[in-house]
Specification:
Blueprint (H helix, E strand, L loop, with lengths): L1 H8 L13 E5 L12 H24 L3 E3 L1 H5 L8 H15 L4 E5 L7 H12 L4 E4 L7 H10 L5 E3 L7 H7 L2
Parallel strand pairs: 1-2, 1-3, 3-4, 4-5
Helix pairs in contact: 4-5
Length: 175
C-alpha cells in the first residue's frame, strides 16, 4: 500500500527513464589544496568549500537537463576522508557508479587535479567515456589540461562554463 501511494505521489514514476538526459559523473576537487595544511579544522574548511562548489556544479548540470552524480557529495556522508582506507573505499564506490554514466565532467577553477580526480579521469578513459573539462569561467590554462591529457594518452574535450549545452553533442559523437 505504501509503495502505491508513493508511486501515485510521483505520477506513477517507478523506474528510471532518462529520455534525452545524460548521466554525468562530476569530477571536482575535494581535498585539493589541503596537502600543505596541517590542522584538521583547516582541512575540513577547505573540504566544505569544495563540497559547496560541487553542489553548484551539480546544479549547473541539472539545469542543463542532465542527471549529475558527484561521489564526493555522497561518500563523504559516511566515509572518513581522513582515513586512507575509507577514502579508498569511497573512491571505489564512485568508480562503480562512473561505469553507469554517459560522460565524466571535470570542473576545476585552477586546472589542477587532485589524486582522486586523476583516478576518476583515467577510469573514465579506460571505460571509453567522453571526458569533458569545464573551465568554470576562470583563466584555467588549456596547456595544463592538454599536458595531463597527453601524458596519460587521454582525449579531453574542453568547454567554457557557458557551453554546457554542447555536452550532449560530445557524448553522441563519442558513442
Amino acid at each position: 500500500m505504501r509503495v502505491n501511494s508513493i508511486k501515485n505521489q510521483y505520477n506513477g514514476y517507478s523506474s528510471p527513464n532518462f529520455g534525452n538526459s545524460k548521466r554525468i559523473f562530476l569530477c571536482s576537487p575535494l581535498t585539493l589544496g589541503t596537502d600543505a595544511v596541517t590542522e584538521i579544522s583547516q582541512k575540513n574548511a577547505i573540504m566544505q568549500a569544495n563540497l559547496k562548489k560541487a553542489e553548484e556544479y551539480c546544479r549547473k548540470l541539472m539545469l542543463n537537463g542532465d542527471y549529475p552524480y558527484a561521489p564526493h557529495l555522497y561518500a563523504t556522508r559516511f566515509a572518513d576522508e581522513h582515513n586512507p582506507d575509507e577514502r579508498t573505499m569511497g573512491i571505489n564506490i564512485g568508480l562503480a557508479f562512473l561505469r553507469l554514466c554517459d560522460a565524466l565532467c571535470v570542473f576545476s577553477k585552477t586546472g589542477k587535479l587532485g589524486k582522486g580526480m586523476g583516478t576518476e579521469i583515467k577510469e573514465a578513459a579506460k571505460n571509453r567515456l567522453p571526458i569533458i573539462f569545464i573551465k568554470d569561467g576562470t583563466d584555467c590554462p588549456d596547456e595544463f589540461i592538454k599536458s595531463f591529457a597527453n601524458q596519460n594518452n587521454i582525449n579531453i574535450n574542453i568547454l567554457e562554463d557557458s557551453e554546457l549545452g554542447k555536452i550532449d553533442t560530445i557524448i553522441e559523437e563519442n558513442r
